[in-house]
Amino acid sequence: MSVPILELLPAVDISEGYAVRPVGGTLSGGEQRLDPVEAALTWVKAGARWIHLVDLDLAFGRGTNTEVLAEVVAAVRAENARMTGSAPVRIQVSGGVRNPESLERALSLNPDRVNVTSAALADSSWLEGTLARYADSDLLALGLDARYTPERGWVTVARGTDWSGPGVAEALAWLEGAGVRRYIVTDVSKDGSLAGPGAELLDVVLAQTDRPVVASGGVASLADLVKLRSMVPSGLEGVVLGKALYVGNFSFEQALEIAGSR
Q1: Which helix (H) or strand (E) holds 183?
Q2: How many CB atoms lie within 10 A of CB 203?
Q3: What is the pTM of this model?
Q4: Does the pLDDT of residue 173 top 70, yes or no?
Q5: Residue 117's beta-bridge partner residues?
Q6: What letter does residue 161 receive in the DSSP assignment?
Q7: Cα–Cα distance between 185 and 7 in angstroms, integer?
Q8: What's the average model confidence in pLDDT over 235-242?
Q9: Average pLDDT in the 112-118 region?
Q10: Which of 39, 75, 108, 148 has the fewest CB atoms within 10 Å, counting from its CB?
Q11: What domains appear along the chain, each with residue ranges and CATH number?
Q12: Choice between 24 and 202, residue whose per-residue pLDDT is larger
């Protein structure tokens, strides 16, 4: 019996108008600065079926890049239209979506999916109502960012903020009841660090939900992708790829081969 494919979502993280790479949930100030349209089109031309598009400044509470994100979305869809016979390239928008204003900003880009940050758990009434509003749609995913602490185990956090929320098990129990349809899961200690994909946290989440799960952060090698693909039968749907692609640890074409997506 063949193993189902692992969906690949190359990331374009935008800060101050450039594509950059955050490390460990923070902006260190020494990131490589790339043209975000060029970065996104590189992955489209290499065969990506998703682009994970992040407004880091909105996530870190220091402004927005909505106009730049709109340029990337338009360029990706124009390039996809030119690629006769190719599958649609979908856009997942992320970064700081935690309230009505930020959700409206994300939806103005007409994305295929919006990733609501785990910080939205701080306003549970808004989050519950929003999830109910889109209950019959796959438009919303819940970004479950977490960090392991000796005192509390896995705890929900929000990259770019000092916010710390409930434990992951407690958060998942509430989110399952609130109707989350998909999770984007990140061990923030490994994000951008090339330290591995946070399999321990993924195991915890996969054991508690039958919703699709997308891994994010930490992938360093093709061996990491082999490991993640082995988790697909347990409910892992895909993985967001970032730094490993940008520093050339492997090509996107190689990643597609491992993921079974070519």
Answers
A1: strand 183-187
A2: 12
A3: 0.93
A4: yes
A5: 143
A6: S
A7: 14
A8: 97
A9: 97
A10: 108
A11: 7-259 (3.20.20.70)
A12: 202
